[in-house]
């Protein structure tokens, strides 16, 4: 086991935190992961794992486990809400040839289970559940983290503290002290349907994305094709709390009305017996998210709206870059974390800006939507996919030079 001087403390056992722990352990560090939940539940919606994320996960030894629970979509099919007609089809099925890594879809709970299994295979990772980070103190040997839980209080020391504790990060509150997340006035509704209860067209390995005025709908198979993940996002002034507030299907249908949505879409939305919902929140980009031996990762550092399907992917990329930075400078964690932040800040800001642009484009109505649809049809699936090359073609530091973001995608104030 690495000596205590090689210990990294990670707050949060979500996707970013577990990925970081695995990557750090593989680079010779001991990792203590502190998670305030007493049980890691298989909750959440589906996730699209684009090649930039899959490349990292495969490098951590997750390929066989992911093969058992993911689906490899042939395409992302963009559809017009009012008619259900296809606008354009992005051929993501050739991602392995195009980007060197596949495109997959997975349920969030399954991804967390895969990462948890990989973490438990590594003796240098200690997972401490039911322990909330309350405070930390920086000193010449690194940082000491004060925690509390049902069984009392404890302290954990290490070279560095990584705040991977999500949108409502306690580490961020202590490190940055900025305003809390602000409502985006969008609510996401999610449900799962048994694949054998739907028609074959819905079981096909396709990511269906329906664009409508003020709302959009996405559905695709997960759990190796055994379930259909359905998510609808609509404008909503109510900022519900929590990740799994109960939802009323009838209320959802009022947000996707019959005059704007095709019968096939509304029929799908009427099928689930249980809906869960969560409010979307946003935060402006930070100029800095590292100070001394403390840094942030994923949603704690740069939360983004889900309209590029890159939130989890950015956390996974963060984890790889962070582990590489610390491995290159194990004796100088302050410099390593500053390097990590520098390498990540511009890219994550660009992806965040792209997601916000998609928010506007997805939810257009009337003539503006018709112009959008015509533009996508004229561009075609191959060229539309090429606009994502700078995202999907990313490689960790040990790989090739990443594809740079286009100029208009990076024109964001850090």
Automatic annotation (TrEMBL):
Cofactor field: FAD
InterPro entries cross-referenced by the UniProt entry: FAD-bd, FAD-dep_Monooxygenase_BioMet, FAD/NAD-bd_sf
Entry keywords, A to Z: FAD, Flavoprotein, Monooxygenase, Oxidoreductase
Any Pfam family matching the protein: FAD_binding_3
A GO molecular-function annotation: FAD binding
Domain FAD-binding intervals: 8-351
This protein's name: FAD-binding protein
Organism the protein comes from: Rhodoplanes serenus
């Amino acid at each position: 086991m690495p000596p205590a001087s090689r210990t990294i403390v990670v707050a949060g056992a979500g996707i970013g935190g577990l990925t970081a722990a695995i990557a750090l352990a593989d680079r010779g560090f001991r990792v203590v992961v502190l998670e305030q939940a007493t049980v890691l539940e298989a909750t959440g919606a589906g996730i699209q794992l684009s090649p930039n994320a899959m490349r990292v996960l495969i490098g951590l030894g997750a390929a066989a486990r992911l093969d058992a629970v993911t689906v490899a979509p042939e395409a992302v099919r963009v559809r017009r809400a009012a008619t259900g007609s296809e606008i354009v089809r992005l051929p993501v099925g050739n991602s392995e040839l195009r980007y060197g890594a596949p495109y997959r879809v997975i349920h969030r709970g399954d991804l967390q289970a895969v990462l948890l299994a990989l973490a438990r295979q590594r003796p240098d990772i200690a997972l401490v559940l039911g322990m909330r980070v309350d405070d930390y103190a920086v000193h010449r040997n690194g940082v000491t983290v004060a925690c509390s839980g049902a069984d009392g209080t404890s302290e954990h020391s290490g070279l560095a503290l990584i705040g991977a504790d999500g949108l409502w990060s306690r580490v961020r509150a202590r490190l940055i002290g900025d305003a809390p997340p602000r409502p985006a006035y969008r609510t996401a509704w999610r449900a799962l349907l048994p694949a054998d209860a739907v028609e074959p067209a819905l079981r096909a390995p396709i990511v269906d994305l329906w664009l409508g005025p003020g709302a959009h709908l996405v559905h695709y198979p997960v759990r190796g094709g055994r379930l259909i993940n359905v998510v609808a996002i609509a404008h909503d002034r109510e900022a519900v709390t929590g990740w799994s507030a109960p939802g009323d299907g009838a209320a959802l249908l009022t947000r996707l009305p019959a005059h704007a949505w095709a019968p096939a879409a509304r029929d799908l939305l009427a099928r689930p017996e249980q809906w869960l919902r969560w409010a979307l929140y946003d935060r402006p980009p930070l100029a800095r998210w590292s100070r001394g031996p403390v840094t942030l990762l994923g949603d704690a550092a740069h939360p983004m709206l889900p309209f590029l399907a890159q939130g989890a992917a950015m956390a996974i990329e963060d984890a790889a870059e962070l582990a590489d930075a610390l491995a290159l400078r194990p004796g100088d964690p302050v410099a390593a974390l500053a390097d990590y932040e520098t390498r990540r800040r511009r890219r994550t800001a660009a992806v965040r800006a792209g997601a916000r642009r998609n928010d506007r484009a997805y939810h257009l109505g009337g003539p503006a939507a018709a112009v959008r649809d015509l533009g996508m049809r004229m561009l075609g699936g191959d060229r539309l996919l090429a606009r994502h090359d700078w995202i999907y073609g990313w490689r960790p530091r040990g790989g090739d030079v990443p594809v740079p973001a286009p100029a208009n995608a990076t024109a964001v104030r850090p």
